[in-house]
Structure formats: structure tokens, C-alpha cells
Design brief:
416 residues; five-stranded mixed sheet; alpha/beta; elongated
Length: 416
């Protein structure tokens, strides 16, 4: 029959990295303290992992929190030895089941990371039987430790946008790898200074030259920095923001007409907004007939919608020359329409035309970035908002960062 120590080793899967030499229950059987020692680790240096000569013991026992079992807290207890390393001098030996200076085991860290990915921190803390503040603090230390030596690699298609946190009172700049749909950097603040700080402090000159495309909205804060700092990069204005600007121009015409018509005529314009916004591919025949009636009822709104509907064909062109010819003809008709919002859109279109045309050849948009933003909003809603950017950044990097943080935990300790 196997001993109790062997049973504990099998139950907790301690095999080949520690030995059990004793155990005790404390606090009315609510805490299990397991006395352990490393399994054939050869007393390695805690900094470099080199085998060294044992010179003594640490001043006191150390305890590491492990995964709870049936609601019972589990702690591993060991009196570490000190070794004499030729490089690092007298130092505490390497602990195979935990990171140096950590107070929890690798298994506990892995479970915490997985829980943080899938549920609220409050729920994860309840499962691990720790306070929520402890859960948040441990998460921040683990993410910071894992990403401390991480470098951005293989960035060729860059996307940039801003997000709000702290009830919308503060902003952060988020940089994406659009090729892999991952977040590579988060910085406090918004605008050109924040984005330029990322390019100068986080990318080498060689890495900046390897970025082939950069996609963003029409904000000069981003476009000006890309033109100045990424000289070999093709700037692409996101298609979504161009369409959004055109829809806003058309809607401004509708609002002007709504304000001008009498109370009795407003009923005819009621409910038009979302029908006008619809793409021709998703618009029903009945909705098209409703809009066509505007040709006699309100010609200004009808002309604005017609220009907006015709502009959809621009995105179908595959040759830049044909697309430029279409734009020249479309902008001429928009200017002759005598609709001031549409004329303003033409000015915007001409300003950014050279950066809109590359979309036709590459098909690159910030759609993946908008999808990432949706994930970020879900993370924010799950936590009911964040007052601290560090806490928000930890979860962003954990859920959709360019480094798989749980995978950095040694494989034999990934027990859930």
C-alpha cells in the first residue's frame, strides 16, 4: 500500500519536480500545509540556473499558495538553501514550482490567468479563494513579468486607434497588428505625441522600415506622424471612416430639410434616416420605393442619397486609373449639386484621395481593428469599467495581446 506522501504526490501531480516530506491541517482543517523539497534539482542558482555549491540555508521558511482543493487552501512549505554562484555570488536556490520571489506557484498563476480571460475578476477570486484586490495585484505582476522582455516582432501591417476608459474621461492609444489581429502596444493619452512615442521608443529603425502598410482614420494626429516617421509605409485611410463621413454629410442634408419643412410635412420625412443609410445590397425593394418618392417630395434629400448610393461603386474598382476617373466625375456632380455638406465631403475626399486609392489594390481596412475594439469594449463592460489604465492594459494583453501569456507558464504546470 502506498504511503500518504505518495498519495499526495499523485493527487496534486507533484511527480518529478518535488517530494512530499510531511503535511498538516490548520485553522480547523481549512488550510493544508504540505512540507516539500525539490526533486533532484541539483541546487541551481536562482538567477541563471547554474549548478552551484550549497553554502547554507535561507533565514526562514517560505510558503507558496497552490490551487485549492474542495474549498481547502493549499500551501507548499520549504526551507530554501543558499548557493554560491560564480556569477551572482551567494543567492537562494532555484525553486522549480514557482517564479523567484513569488508567493504563489506556477499552477496557481496559470489558473488565475485562465480565469481572468474567461470571467470577471470577482468570480475568479472566489474560485481561487482570495480577495479581489489580491487577484488584481497578482494579475498585474504576472503580466508585467511575462511581457517585460517581450519585443514586437513581424509588424508589417499597422493599425492605430484610440479607446476611452475611466467612464470616458480618459483616453488611450492602441496599436494593432492587423495581419494577426492582435494588440501590440497601449499608451496613455491620444494624439500625435502618444503615437510618435510608440514609434520612437518601441520600434527600431529597421522595424519601422519593415512596416509596409498603415491603416487609420482621417485624423491628422495619426496621418501626419505616419507620413513623417514611416517614410517607406503606404498610408491607407480606412474605408469605414470614408463611408461614415459620406453618410454624415448625407444625414446633414436630411437634418437641414427637417428643420426647414413645416410641422405638417415632417411626417413624410419621419423614419427615413436608417433607410437612407442602408447599403444597396441590404436594402429591400419597398425601402427603395420609399426613397424614390423623395424625388418629387424632397429633391435635396433625394440628390444627397443618390450621390451616396452612386459612391458605393467606387469600392468595386480594381484599377486605380478607372477609380480616379470615377472620382473625378463623381466629385464634379457633387459640387454641382448645391448641397453644402456634400461639397465639404468632396474637399475631405480630395485631401485624402491618394491614401484612399491604395485600398483598391490591397483590400486593407481597419475592420480587424474595429473587431478588436469590440473585444476591448466587452472586456471593459465585463469589469464595469476601469479607473486605471494599467488594469485595463493587463486584461487587453491577456485576452488579445500579441503574446500568449498563459503559454509562457511551464507546460507541466498548466493543469486546468
Amino acid at each position: 500500500m502506498q504511503s500518504v506522501a505518495q498519495f499526495i504526490v499523485k493527487l496534486f501531480r507533484f511527480k518529478k519536480y518535488l517530494k512530499v516530506i510531511g503535511f498538516e491541517f490548520t485553522k480547523y482543517n481549512k488550510i493544508l500545509r504540505i512540507l516539500v523539497k525539490p526533486y533532484k534539482n541539483g541546487c541551481r542558482c536562482g538567477a541563471c540556473g547554474r549548478r552551484c555549491e550549497i553554502v547554507g540555508f535561507a533565514k526562514e521558511l517560505r510558503s507558496w499558495r497552490d490551487l485549492p482543493i474542495h474549498g481547502i487552501e493549499v500551501w507548499l512549505v520549504y526551507h530554501p538553501r543558499e548557493v554560491q554562484c560564480p556569477t551572482h555570488g551567494r543567492i537562494q536556490e532555484e525553486i522549480p514550482w514557482a517564479e523567484a520571489l513569488a508567493r504563489v506557484t506556477y499552477r496557481f498563476e496559470y489558473a488565475l490567468l485562465r480565469f481572468a480571460q474567461q470571467m470577471t475578476q470577482k468570480a475568479g477570486a472566489q474560485l481561487l479563494r482570495i480577495p479581489k484586490s489580491t487577484f488584481s495585484g497578482l494579475l498585474h505582476r504576472i503580466v508585467t513579468r511575462v511581457r517585460s522582455g517581450h519585443k514586437i516582432r513581424g509588424l508589417t501591417v499597422l493599425g492605430v486607434d484610440e479607446i476611452a476608459y475611466c467612464r470616458g474621461y480618459k483616453y488611450a492609444t492602441v496599436v494593432y497588428d492587423l495581419e494577426r489581429s492582435k494588440v501590440v502596444w497601449i499608451g496613455a493619452g491620444k494624439g500625435s505625441a502618444t503615437f510618435e512615442r510608440f514609434l520612437n521608443n518601441n520600434l527600431s529603425e529597421y522595424q519601422r522600415q519593415q512596416i509596409r502598410y498603415a491603416c487609420c482614420d482621417m485624423a491628422r494626429a495619426y496621418t501626419s506622424v505616419i507620413k513623417r516617421c514611416l517614410t517607406r509605409t503606404t498610408l491607407i485611410i480606412d474605408r469605414f471612416h470614408v463611408v461614415k463621413a459620406l453618410n454624415e454629410a448625407m444625414d446633414e442634408v436630411r437634418k437641414e430639410e427637417w428643420r426647414m419643412v413645416g410641422k405638417s410635412n415632417k411626417l413624410a420625412l419621419k423614419g427615413l434616416r436608417w433607410i437612407l443609410f442602408r447599403n444597396s445590397s441590404t436594402r429591400r425593394k419597398g425601402q427603395t420605393r420609399t426613397i424614390n418618392k423623395l424625388k418629387r417630395g424632397n429633391n435635396r434629400i433625394y440628390r444627397a442619397w443618390l450621390l451616396k448610393d452612386e459612391f458605393e461603386h467606387f469600392w468595386d474598382y480594381q484599377y486605380v486609373g478607372s477609380a480616379m476617373k470615377f472620382l473625378k466625375d463623381w466629385t464634379r456632380r457633387a459640387l454641382l449639386s448645391r448641397l453644402e455638406p456634400m461639397r465639404k465631403f468632396v474637399a475631405t475626399l480630395r485631401e485624402h484621395q491618394e491614401h484612399i486609392l491604395p485600398f483598391l489594390e490591397t483590400g486593407i481596412t481597419n475592420a480587424k481593428g474595429e473587431g478588436i475594439n469590440r473585444v476591448l469594449q466587452m472586456v471593459k463592460q465585463r469589469a464595469s469599467g476601469f479607473l486605471n489604465l494599467d488594469a485595463f492594459s493587463d486584461l487587453i494583453f491577456l485576452v488579445i495581446g500579441d503574446l500568449d501569456i498563459p503559454a509562457q507558464i511551464p507546460e507541466r504546470f498548466r493543469t486546468i
